[in-house]
Every structure is written in structure tokens, then in C-alpha cells.
Design brief:
4-stranded antiparallel sheet, 336 residues, 6-stranded mixed sheet, 26% strand, Alpha-Beta Plaits, binds adenosine-5'-triphosphate, alpha/beta, Rossmann fold
């Protein structure tokens, strides 16, 4: 029996292994119109304490993957383990709980009655008042569920997910339908929960959520993991870097022209632009080499190297062919 305590998740034991281990996971649905392969072979290991965003466009296979992780649907092939257990066993022992996109709430109960009712189904639930406070629901405790907004109902689902003090929280687009303020409050709460040592896995469409909240982003498209790394790695992998610098003021017009021509010929430069003030911007496939040339050979100053936006990276990654899964943390040849 798993031991729980009111203030935080069960300490992960060394023998538990990874929080999540998905191996060659596939899922094919049979429909009247034929077969739909939602997940085409996902391998993913998540260690205890990681906060991982699963990011992907509509229909990428995020929900299907999370459903298999939670034992809500069985894989067609491959395996799923949560702390070394089959998913349903992990849920039965309160190691994992979830906030799903939809989920029945009884509209005639109040918020507090709902939490109390679900708490009564656990052997060692967290205290109801504590959970209400952590989900930001104390002031709404006596409100009928039917009178709660969509965002408030989502926070109630979150409170219910906290009751077993799970080691792993799985959230499928938890802030869908919330306005900007509600979303910010929700993520502040999640930060506090992650700081308690919980492993958090969430699916999202929102790049900024993945960027701000996750330690690691797993990009899924067409049923495959197409990139996996820190947000910085995902950005640089997909969009390259831009190197900016100011050319020496002493260069003549002709020398400046020759410098730009030489930069454009450099194999590490994809494009070179310059403004009248002598500030150059080089979109680089090899930013280190370009920076060296600018500083050492050209004598430029005020050098900065910036990665592209995560939006650029996401579009570049998800519009690329998906036959070759990549690890963004591994050295890659960057494309122009
Ligand atoms: N029960 C089902 N029966 C048939 N096809 C399904 C079923 N569930 C999902 N699919 C299909 O599998 C694919 C992946 O769906 P899934 O819901 O996992 O994607 P998603 O990444 O979560 O998308 P979204 O961001 O829109 O929620 C889609 O083509 C979807 O239509």
C-alpha cells in the first residue's frame, strides 16, 4: 500500500524507476470509415520531478497518449508503465491522478461538497480545506457547481486531482477555456505543486504555457514524437540563431560592402542583412562560426546571439515530414 501524507507526494523510491515509461506505443482506432492510427510508435521516459509539456497541433495524438498513460484506453501495441506499475494499478494506489478536458461534475452539489464526496472515496485523502485553498477555491466553497464558470470548474477538477496527493499529475489542456488571468493563477498554483516534488505532464496547444512552465517539451505530430528537449533546445533546433553585431565604424563604404559579401558566402550563414548604422543580422546555421568571424576577422562589436521564437520552432517542426523522430538535445545539423 502506498503511504500518503497531507503535505506532498509520496517520496519516489529508487526501485520505482521512471515516473513514466512509454515503449513503442501505438494506438489504432477502428471506425466505420476505416482505421485511424492516432499514435504511431511513441517512446518516452519521464523521470520523477520533471515537468513535461506535450505540445502538438490538433489531432496529433496527445489525448490518446495521455489516455493510455492513465489506463483509460489500452494500447494497440507497446507498453506503458507509471512508476513501474501498470497505469490502472498506479491510479488504484493513488500514485497518479488527472485533470482531463471533460469530466463529469455533479451540478447540484457545491464546490466543497464535491471535494468532500470525492475525498470520501480515498483511504488517505489530503484535507478538504487544504485542497480547496491550494486550488484557489476557498472563496467559492459554497457555490453550486452549476454556477461556476468553465475556468472555475476546471480548478475544481484540479482540486479533485490533488486529493490523493499523487506523485504524478497528468493534465490534458488544463487551461482550455480560461481567460488570461485565470490561466496565470492556475499556473501559479501548478508551480507550487511542482515545487513539492510532483511530476507533472500536461498537454497543451499554448506555446507560451509550454515555454513558461515546462522544463522539457515533447513535440508530437501525426502520432510521433518529433522533438524532445528543453524549450531552448527546441527553439534553436528548429529555427537556428540570429547573430547581430555592429561593424567597425572605421570601415569604408567599399570595405563594408566586401565584408557583407564575405559573410553571405560563409557556410554558416543562411542570410545576411545590414542597416545604415552598420548593424548586421546574420541568420546562422552555425552561430559560433559566424560570431567568431564577426569578432575576430571583421572586428565587429556589441555582438548578440538570439534564438528564434518558439512559435517559429513549432511551425517549422510540425510542418516538417514526421517520419524521423529527433532528439533536440542531440547534436543536429540545422536546416536553412
Ligand atoms: N475514439 C476514437 N475513435 C476514432 N478516432 C479517434 C478516437 N480518438 C481519437 N481519434 C483520432 O485520433 C487522432 C488523434 O486524436 P487525439 O485526440 O489524440 O489528438 P490531440 O493531439 O489530443 O488533438 P487535440 O489537440 O485536438 O485535442 C485524431 O485523428 C482523432 O480524430
Amino acid at each position: 500500500m502506498t503511504t500518503t501524507h497531507p503535505s506532498g507526494p509520496t517520496a519516489a523510491r529508487p526501485s520505482d524507476g521512471p515516473a513514466v515509461a512509454l515503449r513503442s506505443l501505438t494506438k489504432t482506432f477502428r471506425t466505420r470509415a476505416g482505421e485511424v492510427t492516432a499514435v504511431r510508435g511513441i517512446d518516452l521516459t519521464i523521470q520523477p520531478g520533471e515537468v513535461v509539456a506535450v505540445l502538438g497541433p490538433n489531432g496529433a495524438g496527445k489525448t490518446t497518449t495521455l489516455d493510455m498513460l492513465l489506463g483509460l484506453t489500452d494500447p494497440t501495441s507497446g507498453s506503458v508503465e507509471v512508476f513501474g506499475l501498470a497505469p490502472r494499478r498506479a491510479i488504484a494506489t493513488a500514485r497518479v491522478s488527472a485533470v482531463l478536458q471533460t469530466g463529469g461534475l455533479l451540478h447540484d452539489l457545491t464546490v466543497a461538497e464535491t471535494v468532500r464526496l470525492i475525498a470520501s472515496t480515498y483511504r488517505h485523502p489530503a484535507p478538504v480545506d487544504d485542497v480547496l485553498a491550494r486550488a484557489g477555491l476557498t472563496d467559492l466553497a459554497s457555490r453550486l457547481v452549476s454556477k461556476c464558470s468553465g475556468g472555475e470548474q476546471q480548478r475544481l477538477r484540479f482540486a479533485l486531482a490533488l486529493l490523493p496527493e499523487p506523485d504524478l499529475l497528468v493534465l490534458d489542456e488544463p487551461t482550455a477555456g480560461m481567460d488570461v488571468t485565470a490561466r496565470r493563477d492556475f499556473w501559479a498554483t501548478m508551480h507550487a505543486e511542482a515545487a513539492r516534488g510532483r511530476t507533472v505532464v500536461f498537454a497543451t496547444h499554448y506555446l507560451e504555457e509550454a515555454d513558461q512552465f515546462a522544463d522539457r517539451i515533447v513535440v508530437v505530430a501525426d502520432g510521433l514524437v518529433i522533438a524532445d528537449g528543453t524549450t531552448a533546445e527546441i527553439r534553436s533546433r528548429a529555427s537556428g540563431r540570429t547573430v547581430r553585431a555592429t561593424l567597425p565604424e572605421t570601415l569604408s563604404f567599399e570595405e563594408r560592402h566586401q565584408t557583407l559579401v564575405a559573410l553571405r558566402r560563409h557556410p554558416g550563414a543562411a542570410s545576411v542583412t545590414a542597416d545604415d548604422s552598420g548593424r548586421v543580422a546574420v541568420v546562422a546555421t552555425d552561430s559560433d562560426a559566424v560570431a567568431r568571424v564577426l569578432l575576430v576577422d571583421v572586428g565587429a562589436h556589441d555582438l548578440e546571439v538570439v534564438t528564434g521564437s518558439l512559435d517559429d520552432a513549432f511551425v517549422a517542426l510540425t510542418s516538417a515530414p514526421t517520419s524521423a523522430p529527433t532528439d533536440a538535445s542531440a547534436p543536429q545539423e540545422e536546416s536553412r
